Amino acid sequence: MNRVLRALLAAACLLALVPGCSAHPPAPLVVLGPWTGAEGEAFEAALERLDDGTGRTYTYEGTRSLRETLVSQLEADDPPDVAILNSIGELTEYARRDKLKPLAEATAERAYPPWAPTLLVDGRRRTYWVPLKVDLKSLVWSRKDASDKAPIWCVGLASQATSGWPGTDWIEDILLHQAGPAVYTQWATSRLTWRAPAVRGAWTTWAQLLGVRSAASVERSLTTSYEGTSGPNGPRGLLHSPGFRCTHEHQSAFIRYVYTGTDIALEPSARFLDGPAEYRDTYEVAGDMAAVFSDNPAAQELVQRLSSPAGRKRWREEAAPAVRPLFPNRTDPAPTHPTERHIDTLLTRSARTLCFDASDVMPPELRDAFHRAVLEFFRDPASRRLDALLGQLETVRTQTNENPPEGHTFRPPEEICASPAG
After folding, report:
1. How would you classify the pairing of strands 353-356 and 417-418?
2. CATH class, 136-283+356-400 region
3. Which end of the chain is more exposed for a tag (fewer CB within 10 A), N or C?
4. pTM across the whole model
5. 319/37 Cα distance (integer angstroms)
């Protein structure tokens, strides 16, 4: 049901034109988010079970084109009440443009670092979003029959409108484990040049790890989805895809939905990335954060309920094991599935430091340029080509450094690494 029709029905209820309507029904709240398919269905089911005693209803709009959809709605002055985004860079942009509402104090207490850094706006430091679900990125999946052999890396870089991010994940993880959280933070928050030796070294290390590839192999990786090829039951995963004679895959925890068998092993990525031992227990993470775009107090209440222990428990109960969400606080009940439990232990108990996905911290223009540069570098990893790409990214960095809007003072987040919450 579209937003106009919902508004007409609400108006009809107010005029008592629809039988059974309350004289004063609460307006439906619209939630825009990134989940479709089984993930979207589970979240929508959890929303439907949110009963606050008012009869309020919620409408979930799930889309893979989240940024484009939200930008279009904002331009039409018809934003959702709540939007769920995985990009701190985009959220920062909206806060800077006065599109976000600071969160209520009760919700801000769940703004666990590093997923929800505070922003300094007009002299006040406030919280503008809170993580609903989180993800662990510093992982390597491998075939158990080859886990002790020299890795042959699977690479699939295609992903609809955002192709390239599996490669940026590689470079971010390498930089984090080789140079440490301080350098990583400076780079992710645009306070370090792309020509810095540590940054350049992460790109060359990635090329060395992947090794020499044939033209056919390169083209296959550029055109194959990160999910691998499709089979009768959906995506197979790269480790099970025909044409990919590989043994190891660097991929985030979410990919567990294609590796549900017992033939795949999982371990932290640190031992593969040639970094100092002091950074071995440092992990790159990502997340989906809820932000309020509406003046409606009910939108604030909704985010508070979704981020509460009861809300997280309800969501987990609605989700199938393969898409069950992970949460940021170690006080949440541990998952029961072995793979989920292993990931949760790394995320909330074994980790010393968690650092948010660097490309998702960057301004959207810089992030998108990073994605494109990775695709070009994968096709041609020559040293001269890399120098040109880093120069282009440095130009974008200097052009997109935050400038406060007229009449406002604003400072983007600076701390994107933290110890596990709880």
Report:
1. antiparallel
2. alpha beta
3. N
4. 0.91
5. 11
Per-residue tokens: 252: 């985030």
Residues in CB range of 337: below 8 A, 6 or more apart:
321, 324
* Lookup result for tokens 């703004």: 111
Alpha carbons 58 and 18: distance in angstroms, whole number = 19
3-135+288-344: CATH, from 3.40.190.10, 3.40.630.30, 3.30.70.790, 2.40.50.220? 3.40.190.10
Runs of H (alpha helix) within 15-149: 37-48, 66-75, 88-96, 105-108
**Closest C-alpha to 198, from 82, 279, 291, 137:** 279
The single-letter DSSP state of residue 238 is G
Residue pair 68/32 in contact by the 8 Å Cβ criterion: no
Closest CA to 203 of 172, 248, 157, 159: 172
Tens digits of pLDDT across the chain (422 residues): 345 444 444 444 444 444 445 555 677 899 999 999 999 999 999 998 887 677 888 999 999 899 999 999 999 999 999 999 999 999 999 999 999 999 999 999 999 999 999 999 888 999 999 999 999 999 999 999 886 778 999 999 999 878 999 999 999 999 999 999 999 999 999 999 999 999 999 999 999 999 999 999 999 999 999 999 998 888 999 999 998 989 999 999 999 999 988 899 999 999 999 899 999 999 999 999 999 999 999 999 999 999 999 899 899 999 988 889 999 887 776 777 889 999 999 998 899 999 999 999 999 999 999 999 999 999 999 999 999 999 999 999 999 886 655 666 778 888 999 999 86
